[in-house]
Amino acid sequence: MDKMENLLQVKELKTHFMTMNGVVPSVNGVTFNIKKGEKVALVGESGSGKSVTSLSIMGLIEEPGKIVNGSIIFDERNLVDLREKEMEKIRGNDIAMIFQEPLTSLNPLFPVGKQIRESLLLHQKITRKEAKQRAIELLKKVGIPMPEQVYSSYPHSLSGGMRQRVMIAIALSCEPKLIIADEPTTALDVTIQAQILGILNELSELENTALLIITHDLGVVAEIADRVMVMYCGQIVEEADVFSIFDSPLHPYTEALLKSTPRLNGQEKLASIEGRVPNPLHMPKGCTFHTRCPYAIEKCSSNVPAIQEFRPNHHVRCWLADEEEGGIKIG
Amino acid sequence: MKYFLNRTAQVIPVLLIVSFILFFLVHISGDPVDIMLSENATEEDRETLRQSLGLDKPFIIQYFIFLTNMITGDFGKSIIYGQAALPIVLERIPATFELMLASIILSTAIAIPLGVLSAVKRNSPIDLLISGISILGKAMPNFWVGLMLILLFSVNLKIFPVSGTGSVFHLVLPAITIGSAMAAQMTRLLRSNMLDVLSQDYIRTAKSKGVKRLSIVYIHALRNSLLPVITVIALQISTLVGGALITETIFSWPGLGQLTIEAINARDMAVVQACVITIAVFVIIVNLIADLIYRFVDPRIRY
Amino acid sequence: MEIQKETSTAPLTEPSKKNTTKYSIIKWIIPLLKSKTGMLGISIVAIVCFTAVFAPLLAPYKPEKVDFSAISTPPFWMDGGSFNHILGTDNLGRDLLSRIIYGAQISLLVGISSVGVAGVIGVIIGLTSGYYGGLVDTLLMRFVDANIAIPSILFALVVLGFMSPTIITLIIVIGVSSWIGYARVVRSEVLSLKEREYVKAAKSIGVRNGTIMRRHLLPNVSSSVIVIATTSVATTIITEASLSFLGLGPQAVTWGKVLSDGRDYLSTSWWIATFPGIAITITVLGIIFLGDYLRDMLDPRIQE
Fold first, then answer.
1. Least enclosed by CB within 10 Å: which of C79, C147, C161, C263?
2. Alpha helices, DSSP H only, in B199-268?
């Protein structure tokens, strides 16, 4: 991996929540890189810590949560050490974010145009007039018909798909280097989902913007990502390019996720993942997945496996993939 | 506009009920003839008066007479002032209006920064302090606050006049008396709404855009948190007017409240009736205005 | 209320409650001990109730006892004050502490009884109008609007102005002027409750309306009613004090009356008006804390 190309380097990130009942290690030692213009997907069930990872990058972790360890290097600066003032200059300008719920992610009391313009006025030295012009262009770019009209209309009068387009317009407004999209299509109809992903894909390629897509939906991953990271219980358990993940998953959890995803050719029966995500207050010893893993061996319940490169550019955190155990063969 | 007309039309049945309750109260409260005539009046005199007042007619007819008189603004003659009741009452409106306005401005000026600060610094010592003061403000009886203010600022410190009207200084203490209760209520409400709004998705969106903390609170969150406050304050306006009744009496503020209490003590029926109806209309208008503001601010229910 | 929300756990509100008493007592006491304001509230209320009940034993003097040799004695820590009259005396030499102790009796009596009157009227009207709908309901809603237009204290003033104010009339008048809050809440809860399966089921097997209201609806609205009633006691105590203050209260020693006596002597004997006000404030504060605690425990949905 060429270090020069790396836009974002997350190293040993730990974000914990100090709740009344104990410490919840939502993100527990996550390391990954994103290169310029790369499209990466972070996949996992709800509660796996993927959203907390993204909020940690944005510096939006709030009480009782706290980044307790690790570094987030973006453009040669460690975001963890930055003061709030400096972070404000990065948010929306260098790193933008799109959220899951387009219905609630826009302020109901302001016209959408104003909400796009706000970002521009904050980060760029332009007049209100120019900002308005630019906002209308952005609306056009994300495929909104009659952008002048939409500019002055309120969120409640737009459909979910339209609102998500507005969110994308806001994210794109300052030509960020990285866009983090947290479940951008989960709340939308299937047909709208495809459109939104299309726009996101096209525009990020056009602007050479890196994209970190957070999702539980492998369909989304297949459509948009170059590289995939699978997350479970606050750790990345497998990382590879999108083809390797789909064709030869190494981690039993990835395999289970794939089996539970409907496929268009529909030859296999849909399987659900056995068992439940463990209680974050009482994480199992050893590999966190061993309680649900159909292949678990004795070692899994006592020793924590390290992440290692099993094949070139294909990393996995599993004892079964360990040389000593002879490696696994699944699928 | 259509909505406005609709909403105004809804006022009519409300006023009908108010007038009916009022009439009913007056009706059961005793024979007005006893009040109007001296004790040694003959039974004949009483009967003549009763007939001239229409008191010999059935209840419902009497109500309709009362209602038609009321609509034409005729509440009868005041015993104390010896003239038509309505002008006497209307004369007092500006003073009460002035007091209410001052109280509202004062309480808003106090409640917004305190409520916001309390929510933003949630669970900090300052939040506890503000919450404590606002609960205290809710617990203290209005008239007692008034007396204590007089004791402190007029009797001991001699900064403000004890009572009466004429200068801005006269306005300060009564406005604080009414305003403090309102401010306490508003602060508590604003705090809880603000906490709710600050956890909304669109606030997170604003943060992700790099909006500064202060602008997030005052531009993005405040407007949304104030909406429910407007509604609740409008609903509470009658309680506030109730508080104003007593406050005006304490400070001899020449408004509607003082007149009402005076008229009740003197059993001046005409004035009491005119006062109640005027207060009811006042409260209804305030509610109407609040409703319109709400619609203006919130695009979701604007037509 | 947020203060408690974080310290106490919200209970589950189940449609049919058949908890055993032993279990629910434990469920109640633990959060109470955890909630500081809840404890404070319940302690204040308990002390005030105790004072009211045992007033004759606690008060050093009879409240009406006039002592011309001790007119306007200041409280004990001031010049001229003594431990004979800890909080001083009023313009007739009556002991202020004794008057406040006895005042608790009437204030609590009026406060609690008028809440009872208002609660009964409000619950009955709310239940019927929510359950049957139609004309009763329309009328109720118009009444609610009208109620908003007339301040309840004004209503009470007008009525009491033309009646001889006794404790009984006071209770009735305050009760009648404040039932609407209960009716509103009960009505809206019943509107949603009557769509529930178990109510529909009861209806379909021919259970009579009266029984449905008593057996299925009433128990489910009771927690909201208790919460409103608790906070209402605070309001009615203030209302009673206001009426007494304006000279329209009963001919008895109440906090409002004692306070009102002190109004004319503010410049010479500040303590007469000050201490009854403190008594009212502390009591109301206790009730508010208790009410907030109960709301968190019983019905987290009700907002202010």
1. C79
2. 201-208, 213-215, 222-250, 256-265
Q: What confidence score (pLDDT) does residue A9 get?
A: 93
Which residues make beta-bridge pairs with A96? Answer: A179
Inter-chain residue contact C273 with B147, CB threshold 8 Å: yes
Backbone conformation region of residue A90, classed left if phi is above 0, alpha if psi is from -120 to 50, else beta: alpha
Q: How far is A102 from chain B (nearest CA, A)?
A: 9
The verdict on a CB contact (< 8 Å) between B223 and A97 is no
Residue of A87, A107, A112 to mutate for B, most B C-beta atoms under 10 A: A107
- Please tell me the distance from the alpha carbon of residue A257 to that of residue A25, in angstroms, as a whole number: 22
Residue B123 contacts C where some CB pair is shorter than 8 Å: yes
Nearest to B210 among A89, A99, A108 (CB): A89
A172, two tokens: 């794109």
Q: Residue A77's beta-bridge partner residues?
A: A74
Residues B22, B47: Cα–Cα separation, whole Å: 24
pLDDT digits (tens, 9 = 90+) for B219-254: 889 988 888 888 877 877 887 888 888 899 888 889
Which chain A residues touch B207 with a CB distance below 8 Å? 58, 60, 91
CATH architecture assignment, domain A3-94+176-323: 3-Layer(aba) Sandwich (3.40)
CA–chain centroid gap for C208, Å, is 34
In this prediction, residue B21 has a pLDDT band, given cuts at 50, 70 and 90, of confident
Q: How confident is the model at residue C119 (pLDDT cuts 50, 70, 90)?
A: very high
Please list the alpha-helical segments (H only) found in B37-84. Answer: 43-53, 59-71
What's the mean per-residue pLDDT of chain B? 84
pLDDT of residue A330: 45
Contact at CB, B201 and A105, closer than 8 angstroms: yes
Tokens of A108: 């109901």
Structure tokens at B93: 């409106």
Quick one: average pLDDT of C234-257? 87
Say what the ipTM of the complex is.
0.84
CB pairs under 8 A between A and B: 73
The continuous run of DSSP H or E covering A272 comes out as none
pLDDT tens figures, B181-214: 889 988 988 998 999 898 888 999 999 998 988 8
Query: In angstroms, what is the C-alpha Rg of chain A?
Result: 21
Report how many Cβ contacts below 8 Å link chain B to chain C. 156
Measure the CA–CA gap between A320 and A331, rounded to whole angstroms: 14
Residue B300 has its nearest CB partner, among A90, A97, A108, at A108
Q: A308-311 and A235-241: which strand pairing?
A: unpaired
- The CA R_g of chain C, rounded to the nearest whole Å, is 22
Average pLDDT across each block of 10 residues of chain A; the chain has 331 residues. List them in order: 72 90 88 92 88 91 88 91 91 91 88 92 91 93 91 91 91 92 85 88 88 89 90 91 89 86 60 76 86 84 86 87 54 37
Contact C150 B21 (CB under 8 A): yes
Contact flag B208-A60 (C-beta cutoff 8 Å): yes
Three-state SS string across chain C, please? Answer: CHHHHCCCCCCCCCCCCCCCHHHHHHHHHHHHHHCHHHHHHHHHHHHHHHHHHCHHHHCCCCCCCCCHHHCCCCCCCCCCCECCECCCECCCCCEHHHHHHHHHHHHHHHHHHHHHHHHHHHHHHHHHHHHHCHHHHHHHHHHHHHHHHCCHHHHHHHHHHCCCCCHHHHHHHHHHCCCHHHHHHHHHHHHHHCCCHHHHHHHHCCCCHHHHHHHHHHHHHHHHHHHHHHHHHHHHHHHHHHHHHCCCCCCCCCHHHHHHHHHCCCCCCHHHHHHHHHHHHHHHHHHHHHHHHHHHHHCCCCCC
A212 CA to centre of own chain: 5
3-state secondary structure string across B174-197 = HHHHHHHHHHHHHHHHHHHHHHHH
